[in-house]
């Protein structure tokens, strides 16, 4: 039995149902994680179906390699390189794209990933441990203004400036290199407590979102996914953070209505470009039973849209 932290897949059947899988279709799981959604997609596909699964975390790809299924192609890359990777694989259009955003439980629960203040570990926080800067490396050189901006923009942290100044002051006595050091600095700088939340929650989340460019990644893949979907193909996105959900919601809304032109322009509605997406249902949230069984599901929101016949 594996002692590795498990990931409990969120909205498992809902997400797979949302993709309305065609047995011979080509699907993309942009966030393989521990393969919960991917395995269910494979189970729904027929022998001619295909699944291309991305993850930027080498340990997720390693787990994926244990799945002996010739219909599965694993790609170790950020999903923002979706279009390039599909080109390399010779795949021009796909029948569905699923994104289950954020981090997996192993990423949060393995102390050495440095994503959690619950353990003392090097301050890393990268999803892709094979490349890029760690949070400790970034904090060593970032200005107070840059740190403030990250904490405010990605963590909605009221005490962003006070925390950034405290980090800069702590740096003069040596690097801020561990999760424990950062948590203690933040705890002292945050003046009011939010009930039920560790004072460093917002800062850790902000730094993780920033160092992994999570919002930029999402903004990049959404238009590429729509461009590659076949008519009738589905895009399903599960978000765990209001900033992510806002990007998804606005994108799907803007792509599902005709361009908003000033009313005086002499353009007939019939001449306007047709929207490329049609919304499918309302935002879906996990049931009470799912949240009771898996508290990490509580902030999940899934939005689904279907590609129309309209040209890109
Ligand atoms: C919430 S987990 C996915 C869990 C998965 N659906 C399952 O059931 O096991 C998110 C995964 O997506 C990966 N990920 C997040 N952002 C990514 C990105 N921009 N490109 C590629 N992988 C990403 C993370 O490394 C993590 O493994």
Could you provide a short overview of the structure?
With 312 residues, this protein is α/β, with parallel strands linked by helices. It has helices spanning 12-18, 36-44, 58-64, 82-89, 105-109, 135-141, 144-155, 160-171, 179-189, 201-211, 214-228, 242-255, 288-293, and strands at 26-29, 50-55, 72-76, 94-100, 229-239, 277-279, 301-307.
Characterization of this structure:
This protein has 312 residues and is α/β, with parallel strands linked by helices. It has two domains: 12-106 and 214-307, 3-Layer(aba) Sandwich (Rossmann fold), CATH 3.40.50; 129-211, Putative methyltransferase TM0872, insert domain (DNA polymerase, domain 1, Orthogonal Bundle). It has 13 helices and seven strands. It has a seven-stranded mixed sheet, sandwiched between helices. Strand 1, helix 2 (36-44) and strand 2 form a beta-alpha-beta unit. The longest helix is centred in the last third of the chain and has 15 residues, at 214-228. The site of S-adenosylmethionine has 21 residues, from helix 2 and strand 2.
